Amino acid sequence: MSHPYPHSPDRRSFLRRTGQLALGSAAWPLAINLAALGEAAAFEASPGDYKALVCVFLYGGNDHANTVVPFDAAAYDQYSTIRGGGAGRSAGGIALAYDALAATALTPASAPVDALGVPRQFALHPSMAALAGLFNAGQAAVQLNVGPLVKPLTRAQYLSTDRTNFPRPPQLFSHNDQQSVWQSSSPEGSTVGWGGKVGDRALDLNTASASFTCMSVTGNAVYLSGDSALQYQVSTGGAIKVNAAVQGASVYGSTAVSAAMRSLIAQVRPHTLENEYTKVTARAINAEGVVTAALAQGAATPLATVFPSGNTLADQLRMVARLIQGRNALGVRRQVFLVSLGGFDLHDNLIRDHGGLLGKVSDAMKAFYDATVELGLAQQVTAFTASDFGRTLASNGDGSDHGWGSHHFVVGGAVRGQRFYGTAPPISVADTKDSAGNYLPANQWHVGQGRLLPSTSVDQYAATLARWFGVSSAELPGVLPNLVNFGTPAYPLDLGFMA
User: Fold this and answer.
1) Distance, CA of 126 to CA of 385 (rounded, Å)
2) How far apart are CA 269 and CA 453, in angstroms?
3) Cβ(36)–Cβ(204) under 8 Å?
4) Most C-beta atoms within 10 A of its C-beta, which of 78, 310, 369, 413?
5) How buried is residue 46: exposed, middle or buried, by Cβ count under 10 Å (0-12/13-18/19+)?
6) pTM higher than 0.85, yes or no?
C-alpha cells in the first residue's frame, strides 16, 4: 500500500528511523533518539516542561441527546416529543424531565447558535453535576456534533452513489470499526492510532525512557500504537509483572525455575528471533521495575484528592494521576494516556442504565481534574472524551440505536472552558423536502432517525489537541491522514477550545 504523502517529512523521518532501528534493535528507544538528532525537533519545550493528553473512551456509543440535553423551551419540547416525553414536560419514553435538568444547566460565556442561527441552551444529564460544575467554572468545554469524516459532507452528498467524490467513513454504525476509526482513522484491523503517532513526535523529549510515552490503563487499543512508540500497559493496581521472572518467585512450586527463567532471559542467543524475544522480555521486566519504583516514590506523598469508590473509570484515572505524579522518576515530559468505560450500547434500558454510567464519567473526570490541580499541573494535562458514535434521536422503544455524530467534553486548565464549540444541530428526525426535492434546512443535519451528520470531524478535534500537545502544523497530516481535506472557515483545523 502506498503512503498517502510520499514526499512528506513524516515519511522520510519514519524511514530513517526504521533503518536505524533495524541496525540497532538492541535498544530501540536509544535508536529512535539518535535518529531524531538529525531531524528538526517536533516539540520545543523548556526544561521541566510537561504535558499529557488523556483519552476517556466510552465504549458502546454514547447517547449524546441525553448527555448534552436541549434546555431552551422550544428545543426541549422538540426533543421531548421525538423521544416520547410525557405531558407537562415530564419524563416519558427515553426523554428526561425538564425540571430534572435545572441543577445541571450550563451557563456558557456566550450562547451557542444552532445550524439555523437560533440561540440554544443546554443542560447535562442530571447525574453529571460534577462535570456541569467544571463547565460553569471554566475548566471544561463541549465540542458539538463531532464524528468521523473523510471530507466534509452534506446530506445530499452522503446519499449520493458517487463514493469517489463523496466518500463516507468506512463501515459506519459498526462498533468495532468506528472505535478503530475514531482512534486511528481506519477501520478494524488498523495497527497505528493517532495517539501513538502523537507519541512518536514526543519520543525525542522522553530520552530517559521512551517506553512510557504512551500508556494504557485499560488494555490494548490501537489508539496508543505509533510507528515507533509502543503502548505500555498498566493495571489500576500498578505495573504488570512477568511473574515467572520475579526474584524469589515460586514457579511450579520451585524458586529454581524462576532463577532459571531469569538466567535464560539474560543470555545472548545466536538466533535473531530468540535474541529479540529475550530482549523484549528483559525490557518488560526492567520497565516494570521503573514504574513500580515511580509509584512507590509517589506513595510517600499520596494524593489527597479523593476518587469515588466503586467507579472503574475513577480507578483508572487515579492511576493516571499517580503516573503523572511520578513523571520525573519515569523520565518523561510528554505522555498520552488511554482509559475507558464500557456499557454505552443501550438499545434497551437507556433510562435505567445511562445515568449511572454518565455519573461515573462525570465524577471520575472531576476527581482527576482536582488531582491535576493538587499536582500543580492543571494547565499541562487535558482530558477528553471519545466514543464509537452518537445514537439516534428517535427512540426504538426503550433505547436508541447506532448513530454517527456526537457531543464530547474537553477538561483541563488549558481548556478555553465555559463554551460550546462547533455547530449545534437542529432537533429533527423529519425527512421533509421542498418542491425542488431538496431537504429543508432543519433536516440536512441528520441521515435518518436523527443520526447526526457530523459538522466537525474527528481529525479537526484531534488536531486541536495535538497542536496544544506540541505537534507542528507540518507534521499534523502525518498524524491525521484526512486532515488535508479540511481547513476551510466552516471546517477549521483549530477548533479553538485549547488556550
Assistant:
1) 18
2) 56
3) yes
4) 369
5) exposed
6) yes
